[in-house]
Amino acid sequence: MTGGLYAVSDLHVSYAENRAVVDGLRPETADDWLIVAGDVGEVFADIERTLRLLRDRFATVVWAPGNHELWTHPNDPVTLRGVARYDALVAMCRELGVLTPEDEYAVWRGDGGPVTVAPLFVLYDYSFRAPGTTTKEESLRVAYDAGVVCTDEMLLHPDPYPDRESWCAARLEQTRRRLEATDPALPTVLVSHWPLVRQPTEVLWFPEFAQWCGTDRTADWHVRHRAAVAVYGHLHIPRTTHYDGVRFEEVSLGYPREWRRRGDEPAPMKRIL
Predict the structure, then answer these.
(1) Whole-number Cα distances in Å, 154 to 71, 73, 149, 158
(2) What is the number of structural domains in the chain?
(3) What pLDDT, in 10s, does the model give residues 118-153?
(4) Engineered SS bond to 168: which of 4, 60, 125, 162, CB 3.0-4.6 Å?
């Protein structure tokens, strides 16, 4: 097998300019895989349409959810909330042949392989607190006072869990068990919409936003679970960094106003292996 393992995230196809970018995404070979690390869109039909288009082009598509897919948006005829919405997204992906965090992890055997490609859904738990705060309540108050509040607070419902951090705790335990059961002889590509470590959030213009960006409980997962590469999005700051000798790739497209600052012809697909 030849070809490459590519990744992209934060396609935000509610924007016409971003839909045009997605229309231009093409594999270089018939064997190329594409990782989609969340935030395809907010409306169920848009997410399905986009993943179907990509699945028709790439040999394999691997998806991990972002916060936007999990929103119950007032413009979406699909009114499911929380776990029920996530389950419906997984069912839709399975109909399309797109791999999800609920499926058996695939092994990439092309260039740079073999590696286990593990899409993760672990959410966040407010442990990336705003500077100078020690509790979730303090951190949220600072964010609200600064006018820096994630829309998740209004649209990402944790049903049937009492709050998002409880849902996060359940996802962390489930995901940890699955990762521990992977082949110990193989390195991994860990794919999460939210960064597994806090360091990438240190360059945010608004540090208060970090509390919606991950959990301290995954801080050692890239080492513990043998990551060759960790792929993430969410921050809309595409770059390559290294932590504990592991390469981290932020692969966001982001909003048009953001990618235009980097040039008029975005090329969001990043070759991972």
Answers:
(1) 9, 9, 10, 11
(2) 1
(3) 999 999 999 999 999 999 999 999 999 999 999 999
(4) 125
